Amino acid sequence: MRPAEVAGVTGPSSGLRLLVVASEFPYPPVSGGRTDIWRRLRALRSLGVRIFLVSWYTEAEGRPPHEHLEAVRAVVEEVHVFPVSLRPAALLLRLLALPVYPAHASSRLLFPGPWTALLRGAAAFRPEAILLDGLYGYGTASRLARTFRVPLSLRSHNVEHVYISRQAREARSIRARFALSLAAVGLRRFESGVLRRCSWVYDISLSDLDYWCRQGVSRISWLPPIAPAPDPDDDVVARSVDILFFGNLHTPNNVTSVRWLLAEIFPRIRSRLGEVSLCIAGSNPTGEIVQLCRSTAGVELIANPAAPSPLYKAARVLVNPATSGSGVQIKTLEMLHYRAPVVSTSVGAQGLPDDVKALMSIADDAERFAEAVVAALGGATPCAERRLETLRVFGMEPLREMVRRLPAGDSGSGRGCD
Fold it and tell me: How far apart are CA 122 and CA 334, in angstroms?
């Protein structure tokens, strides 16, 4: 199956002028969060929505190169990109704002000069609604919403305070643990307040939706991520890799998952089947990941591949040994759009409907996970028609409904707290 950017894009033009504030620059879509943002931008454009995009990049990443900016400009009418600065003045602003804005949110507050330039462009655009795509741009998004007197809605990607706290616990280096622990300070209070102040919240995950409903958040509903389109040629591709894991190779939770896969699961598979190959692929592998892959027989590391599709097509079994996380793991949804069997932990499948979970094997200890992979390697290819029918929920209709409702700041239909 071909993972085109958007599946089944059809429908009338809406003409809605939508200002999107994304916590990170979405191109290239090399992570689950960026993939979710990028696919939604393309889908919104296909529905005739006019988009004004505000986003940020880290100094470690550097300003997006010209070709990346042009790729985004092909989708949106105007884009403003700001640095998450580490300069002394920016760090002082973050420190002063800390009682109100946690570290990742305060890092996206704007100084007067950039704010004036943004305001000038936004005034010419005349937004009818604002979509905050990810929590951390709230300071800028809420200020824009007040200025233009339009509804502010949130696309929630995680229960962020839970996610960051878990990342801090799993971080190995003192520096990373300190930075993540600092990022968690005040985050629960801030996140809860943002969800209650926004006109509506569109949550990526059914599990997270249930959590927020239990916390008393009422203006919230489920907005599934946009799925890739099927590739009719996927079933004729030669399978050159036995097992594939694809994901970023630097966040603490993913590093922990790969460590578990290599140390506990893969040896059990090889003890049963002998010469089995495992490919670990993804962005920016840590030194630990590089060393683990080099020292484990039968493992190939592919760092920073240009695209996941050729790797997914080449694999006999796709695995997601996630041990922690929240939201929806976009990698799991990606895997299900290929012909290979999928084996995941319950964490990797969380936030998805039960009928989608039924499309994969789920195991949470090393022995059972290995057994599921061995069975998948020797089993039949999953039924493509059943998968496609079940995955229709990740199509365009929920997004069309969101577009209809954004100017009013309410949800319309969809799964919510009722």
Answer: 35
> Do residues 345 and 322 lie in contact, with contact meaning Cβ atoms separated by under 8 Å?
yes
Name residues whose C-beta falls within 8 Å of residue 37's C-beta, 6 or more positions apart in sequence: 22, 24, 26, 29, 133, 134
Residue 105 · residue 136 · CB < 8 Å = yes
Sign of CA dihedral 285, 225, 5, 311: positive
Whether 18 contacts 406, CB under 8 Å: yes
Amino acid sitting at position 26:
P
Element (H, E) at 300: strand 299-303
Helix (H) or strand (E) holding 319: strand 315-320
Strands (E), 23-67: 50-58
Vertex 36, ends 71 and 197: CA angle to 5°? 115
Residue-level pLDDT, tens digit, the chain, 418 residues: 333 334 433 344 569 999 999 999 999 988 889 999 999 999 999 999 999 999 999 988 899 999 999 999 999 999 999 999 877 877 887 788 888 999 999 999 999 999 999 999 999 999 999 999 999 999 999 999 999 999 999 999 999 999 999 999 999 899 999 999 989 999 999 999 999 999 999 999 999 999 999 999 999 999 999 987 656 565 545 678 999 999 999 999 999 999 999 999 999 999 999 999 999 999 999 999 999 999 999 999 999 998 888 999 999 999 999 998 878 999 999 999 888 999 999 999 999 999 999 999 999 999 999 999 999 999 877 777 888 888 989 999 999 999 999 998 875 556 778 6
Q: How far apart are CA 85 and CA 164, in angstroms?
A: 20
Nearest of 280, 304, 334 to residue 61 by alpha carbon:
304
Q: What is the pTM of this model?
A: 0.90
Q: Which two tokens stand for residue 147?
A: 């200025």
Beta-carbon contacts of 408 under 8 Å, excluding residues fewer than 6 positions away, are 151
